[in-house]
Amino acid sequence: ETKSPDPISNFKSPTPQQLVLFRKLIEQGKQQEFIELVYNNPRYLISSGDTPVILQEGFRYNAMHVASKENRPHMCELIIRTLESIHFWQVFLQTDNKDSLNSSVNNNRRQFLVDLYLNTPDKGNLETPLHFACKFGHLDVVKYLVSHPLTSITPHNRYGDTPEEVTITQTCSEYKRKAIIKNHYIVTYNYFVPVFGSQDNSTPPILGDPWSPTMAQGQRRPPSCSSVGVYSPRESVRAYAGPMSPSKASEFHRMWKTPPTSPEDRKQYTNIRRGDSSRGIERIGR
């Protein structure tokens, strides 16, 4: 049987003038107008080569560079959430065919594009959105970026500096100095404890081992789930705790996984897990 080809998009690319207006929307944090534009024409975010759209020539900033530079954490989250949304790709590919949308090809397209938005360096100092956020002391942007499993934590800019090193060396006011210290903490203490589960609840959730993006930059999956990809069409990260320090992540994982010692608490623990097979483990973690 011949498989139908993956759909393509017929949307036209925005004009340079339209992209300037789009960039200003991001700079100003106008989330509702952003949503209306990208859902009317997904080409505001996806170029003809399935790469990030350049919103500022010269330095070649994409939407995440712009949002990080302008200290727009909610806009950063909205950009990535949109790119990860099945509904957004339904609009982009103009199809309701779930088999096609969930094909390995289109899952890889989504993951590849998100990775590019999070980790592509600009053309000037070869700095990623995380470099920008650390350099300017944008705490909430840093916190969001390091919380995403695809963000590379240790890329080097033109001068060989990682985001953490840019944070430490940047000269600034007393307020920014305090912010930098907190940034350093956020970048360093970025361990998570994930919960994996199937999208259709056909299998019980699995508690993963403590994991950090810095553990293996080329490996995008927690070590305890080597057979389950983070962005598999069937299994995905359902919830996570963090970011936190490595020692706190290990302790949290132990407490989350191990039933309480007292009979009363142990009974409650068991009842929650058995009574809610799809969300019980998440309730225990909370």
Automatic annotation (TrEMBL):
Keywords linked to the UniProt accession: ANK repeat, Cell cycle, Cell division, Endoplasmic reticulum
UniProt feature, compositional bias: Basic and acidic residues: 263-286
Domain of life of the organism encoding this protein: Eukaryota
Location within or outside the cell: Endoplasmic reticulum
Region (Disordered) residue spans: 240-286
Domain ANKLE2 third alpha/beta as annotated: residue spans: 191-286
ANK repeats: 125-148
One GO term describing the cellular component: endoplasmic reticulum
GO process annotations (BP): cell division; nervous system development; nuclear membrane reassembly
InterPro entries: ANKLE2_3rd (IPR056237), Ankyrin_rpt (IPR002110), Ankyrin_rpt-contain_sf (IPR036770)
PANTHER family listed in its UniProt record: ANKYRIN REPEAT AND LEM DOMAIN-CONTAINING PROTEIN 2
Family, similarity comment: Belongs to the ANKLE2 family.
Full protein name: ANKLE2 third alpha/beta domain-containing protein
Organism from which the protein derives: Nematostella vectensis
